[in-house]
Amino acid sequence: MSDAYAAAGVDARESARAVDALVGVLRTIDLGRPSRSVVAPGHYASVLQVAPNLGVAMSTDGVGTKVVVAQQAGRFDTIGIDCVAMNVNDVICVGAEPLALLDYLGVERAEADMLRDVAVGLKAGAEAAGVEIPGGELAQLPELVRGHPSPHGFDLNGACFGVLALDAVVTGSDCRPGDAVIGVPSSGVHSNGLTLARRALLEDAGLGLEDRPVALGGPSVADALLEPTAIYVRAVVELLRSHLPVHGLAHITGDGLLNLLRLEADVGFVIDSPLPSPPVFGLIQGAGDISDAEMHEVFNMGCGFACVVPDDAAEEATALLGTHHPGTARIGQATDRAGEVEVAGLGRL
Question: From the centroid of its chain, how far is CA 323?
Answer without folding.
Answer: 21
